[in-house]
Amino acid sequence: MRAGGVTNAAVASNLMETVESSDLIAYGLIPEFVGRFPVLVSLSALTENQLMQVLTEPKNALGKQYKKMYQMNSVKLHFTETALRQIARKAITKNTGARGLRSLLESILMDSMYEIPDESTGKDMIEAVVVDEEAVEGEGRRGSGAKILRGKGALSRYLSETKPNDSPQVTCTPR
């Protein structure tokens, strides 16, 4: 199950599909405990595209939840598709799956979440927060993370300056 010190989730998922009660007993679980399992089921590791769906598609998707939270402070939250893909890849490499997506987003958005309530009026008002590739790469380092855009029209200026081919935009409209 281990290859070069890193667990390969796909290999582990394939091996877990063939596990039987006798394997659990051989592993060291007592037969009385194993007998309490009416059915043994294995779960497959999620792919990058499936993690992207978790971030954007369901009614209570993480992207939508954070957008709604920022919207309560009159701030727009914007994700690029490549940033969402990188977040999904990080969750795969850390073997955290869908449960790890929230902590990754939290660490990327941490600084902006503390800064937004302080600056809600005036010309330096925060209009939008953008999560792009740089924000994901800098995740976990102090002072890096999501880009905070200040002033009226800052998001539209930012989007017009970035090349649409380089970073396609993803919409997660909160409900």
Automatic annotation (TrEMBL):
Recorded GO MF terms: ATP binding; ATP hydrolysis activity
SMART domains named in the record: ClpB_D2-small
Record-linked Pfam families: ClpB_D2-small
Cellular component GO terms held in the UniProt record: mitochondrial matrix
GO annotation terms (biological process): proteolysis involved in protein catabolic process
Transmembrane portions of the chain: none
PANTHER family given in the database record: ATP-DEPENDENT CLP PROTEASE ATP-BINDING SUBUNIT CLPX-LIKE, MITOCHONDRIAL-RELATED, CLP PROTEASE REGULATORY SUBUNIT CLPX1, MITOCHONDRIAL
Protein name: Clp ATPase C-terminal domain-containing protein
Species annotation: Brassica carinata
